[in-house]
Amino acid sequence: MFYYVKGTVAHTAPYLAVIDCGGVGYACRTTNNTLARLKKGESAKLFTHLNVREDAMELYGFATENELNCFQLLISVSGVGPKAALSILSSATPESLAMSIITGDEKALTVAQGIGKKIAQRIILELKDKLAKGQISPSGESYGGTGVTVIPENKSSEAAAALAVLGYSQTEIGMALKGIDVDTLSLEDIIKQALKKMMKG
Known about the structure:
The protein is of the alpha+beta class. Strand 4 (43-52) and strand 5 form a beta hairpin. The two termini are 32 Å apart. Helix content is 45%, strand content 19%. It has a five-stranded mixed beta barrel.
């Protein structure tokens, strides 16, 4: 329903940012990482996700599309609700979250408030293969829909598809994969190295 909201930051509180758009204040549930980028009285743009329940409608907003994509991936996991997803993304960047999932690092996930070992294991179990194989895309389109041919047996293409799941552009992916020895490294190691580059960048 809403792709993003753009306006003036009217108010911030833990896990909440209110964006004034033409006199209407949109209350967006959000992460510590997004809140750190916002300043009251200044202009802001948040990419949004509308969560509809029987008893409530809540808007979630994020400073980057990558963070929104990761939020949507997390809430697709059985037993992970929006509150848990915000907690995880408040203690991890999209890049470090993807790294934790791909490497099976439960401890990195349980650092988040309210996230126990069982939930961490479920997140890794349900998302690891999907990320590694680039099977899912937040846009609902398969990677390569923009004229890029993906050869399933090609590790470079598979790594690119996995990074595309996180919302990176083809240009960003190309830069991250440049210089990585895709012929000798495993797919997991290729993705790890590309994520490391993006984390530094």
